[in-house]
Design brief:
Blueprint lengths: L13 H13 L1 H7 L2 H7 L13 E5 L2 E9 L2 H6 L1 H18 L3 E11 L6 H14 L3 E8 L7 E10 L14 E6 L4 E2 L5 E3 L6 H17 L3 E5 L4 H13 L2 E5 L11 H5 L2 E2 L2 E6 L4 H10 L3 E9 L3 E6 L2 E7 L8
Length: about 325
């Protein structure tokens, strides 16, 4: 996809895009992802040879990598929808492993509740996801807390990548930016979770995740992240932080469910959704592989040399984020 330059800010789409940009800047989940570089700076002093900023920690192991992912669930989410919180604790970790080009091996959980029976729905959700994706829960930690204490949940997944990694550090100026997302789902209530997982055939869920390591092995280079809390723009900001690049993203080109407003879609967290940066020569092949599995995939922008994240809608352009990266050592 070619990257057009700036156009006249007075075009008819400019006011709408400015309103959308202001909305994204005011969204707490998006802001948290944009500002995550502060966390990276602290963690990198402790990480040794492991790069911080990917969806998983990738630990060299023989000819491949062990992948280690962890997620903590918001207490409000656990309280409002305990079954789906349990399901999501497994699902999002498995997505992180796939996002790195790996396959999940096992799950552990950390659960705090005021009584064992108060955690039944959480456990049932975790068990449902474990069975659907075919990844066992092998242990964890459970604490019984004082009566009335809200339940808290976290989970971690161990995986392995035997081939090349999909990382957040390989995106290069000139790459096409692709969005792949399973649109065969619906929102779970008023929450920003696009659920294409619960109720889907288990064999389909497993094969869909397995497509990511297959692509990693077939392409000379691919960078990417799974679309997480903070949505499309927040996730892209994290990818650009790691690759020290900029991007132009065309909001009109995003695969989107019919009838869903763009504003809502931009801050949604899909159960299967990825941003990938690939060489333009590989774009058609990658899109075709996802299409073969009934997953929407389209080029939505491109990576740029200038470290600026630019949003495009119609003929309008708006700068969402500008960064200054320190010079690399050596």
């Amino acid at each position: 996809m070619a990257c057009p330059g700036q156009v006249n800010a007075g075009d008819p789409d400019a006011a709408a895009l400015e309103r959308l940009t202001a909305f994204l800047r005011s969204n707490a989940a998006v802001r948290n992802k944009v500002e995550i570089s502060r966390v990276y700076a602290l963690a990198r002093t402790l990480s040794g040879a492991v790069q911080v900023g990917d969806d998983c920690a990738a630990v060299p192991d023989g000819d491949g990598h062990l992948l280690f992912a962890a997620e903590g669930l918001l207490a409000s989410f656990v309280a409002d929808d305990p079954w789906f919180a349990g399901y999501s604790a497994v699902m999002v970790n498995l997505s992180d492993v796939a996002a790195m080009g790996g396959r999940p091996l096992a799950i552990v959980d950390v659960l705090w509740s005021s009584a064992p029976e108060n955690a039944d729905a959480i456990w049932q959700g975790m068990a449902a996801a474990s069975c659907a994706y075919g990844v066992p829960i092998v242990g964890g930690h459970t604490t019984i807390t004082a009566p009335g204490t809200p339940a808290c949940l976290a989970a971690a997944v161990l995986g392995r990548a035997d081939g090349p990694l999909i990382t957040s550090f390989k995106a290069r100026p000139g790459d096409d930016l692709l969005m792949a997302v399973d649109l065969r789902g619906g929102y779970r209530g008023d929450n920003p979770f696009w659920n294409a997982s619960v109720g889907a055939p288990p064999e389909r869920l497993r094969a869909d995740l397995a497509l990511l390591p297959l692509l990693a092995a077939q392409l000379d280079r691919v960078s990417g992240k799974d679309i997480s809390n903070g949505g499309i723009v927040g996730t892209l900001a994290m990818l650009l932080e790691c690759s020290r690049a900029g991007a132009l993203i065309h909001l009109d080109h995003l695969p989107r469910p019919a009838g869903v407003a763009l504003e809502r879609w931009l801050v949604s967290f899909p159960s299967f959704g990825y941003l990938l940066a690939v060489a333009p020569a590989d774009t058609a092949r990658v899109c075709e592989r996802f299409a073969e599995r009934g997953i929407a995939c389209a080029p939505v922008g491109c990576l740029t040399e200038e470290p600026v994240l630019t949003l495009a809608q119609g003929e309008a352009r708006a700068t969402f984020l500008e960064r200054t990266f320190p010079a690399s050592a050596g």
